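Fold it.
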Amino acid sequence: MKNVLLINGSPATDSHTHATLNYLDDQFQANDCSTRIVDLLEIGLPVNDPKYHADAMQSPNEKVREFASLVKEAEIVVLGSPVYHGSFSGLLKMALDNIDGDALSGKKVLLVSNAYGPRSAMQAAEELSTVVRTMSGEVHIRFIGTCNADFNKNDNHLELTDEPIQKRCQDIVNDLS
């Protein structure tokens, strides 16, 4: 059973990024993976302290140590972010800056991004690929890029409903697990 950590870098409470991660979570669970979604907005990580870049477990902040432990235990990490100003969210950047520089070493990393329209849907994932490689992670060859039209609002929450995107998610999860 593979351990999958899905990290939501959206600061919105009902986000398209979170809806995509929920869909992926269901797919990983259907493939007998152990999963956990972390909403960075909810855990409230502090601004990173460069003193602990080499070993986040030495941080005096319990939230940093907990987050670093979750990343360390995961075999597969899914990083999800909305596109903000042509890149990924500052919330996700701050979280990654709080963990060791090689924290993604030996891990498969799937990148997920969402934008208002389809033309810019992949920008955050493309920007994240450089960060993941710098952190020694293995970037999955396929990204997931969504736009707002790929979702419907049901019972006051967003759901990924675009069938080609759902199929892409299923194929990627099958490949990773």
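Helices lie at 16-30, 40-43, 62-73, 90-97, 123-134, 163-176.
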